[in-house]
User: Fold this.
Amino acid sequence: TIEDRVYKESRALFLRTRNNTTELYEELAARILNTKRAHPEIPNLTKKIGSVMDNLRYQVNKSFEKTAKQYRVKYGNEISNQNLYTFIDDNVWRNALHLPLLAVNKMAVDDNEVIKKGLKTFVIEMVKQWVLALHEEKDAKGAIKEFDELTLDLPIPTNYNIVARLPVRKLLQYKK
Assistant:
């Protein structure tokens, strides 16, 4: 169904970028409907995509905060790459990204070292930001939008592969 595609492709998009532009959401909506961006249903789908993305930012940030608290129990506020890479193993990064990973083709991700490395590195950077923020009694919610470079070009596989083929960098108006 269209609804299923919206949820799955929005989750896959979240794994590539936590930022947004109207052009990005409209293009994703058009590709989900297999139509042009002028189609009358595009505004409704764009709102749904935005809502899914907002919810994912909130939920995944809660997951990063929880992971950072677990890290602090083990290592305190000492941040070192060795500690982070030891603590954030395959299970930890997948658990932190559990919700958006529900949309992906798991076998295709498991077979792709570049995707796994990019997502794990993103989780490591976010947990680091949360550990620092918690130490200062703040939060790191805004940092989630700062690490797109680690994931922007990852061809996140889904059953539909719409996001995998989406020119996200261009639609966000990034310059390489």
